[in-house]
Write a structure and sequence with these properties.
It is built from 5 helices and no strands. With 91 residues, it is an all-alpha fold.
């Protein structure tokens, strides 16, 4: 539960992730992605799967849910509609 992105329980050095990503991108001959792109994809997938934004915020290590909402709220355009539909169904 307390391990890092690649399943290791100790943080990588400052340039290890970037350098390894570059090396494997070159080997695979794929387009370069930024180090934070997998993080953004992970958060986006969780949001699209309807996971709790507070849990996502904690998972990302944000100090405040506001930071998460400021970054990812554009991915939740149907939240208001879904909430209203849920209320109508339960009434």
């Amino acid at each position: 539960m307390d391990c890092f992105f690649f399943g290791v329980c100790e943080p990588f050095g400052d340039f290890a992730v970037r350098d390894n990503m570059k090396m494997y991108e070159d080997i695979a001959r794929v387009k370069h992605i930024r180090v934070h792109d997998p993080r953004y994809s992970h958060a986006s997938l969780l949001i699209n799967k309807g996971q709790n934004i507070l849990i996502i915020s904690k998972r990302l290590g944000h100090s405040d849910i506001t930071q998460t909402l400021n970054t990812y709220s554009h991915l939740m355009p149907n939240t208001q509609k879904e909430t209203m539909e849920a209320l109508n169904i339960d009434l």
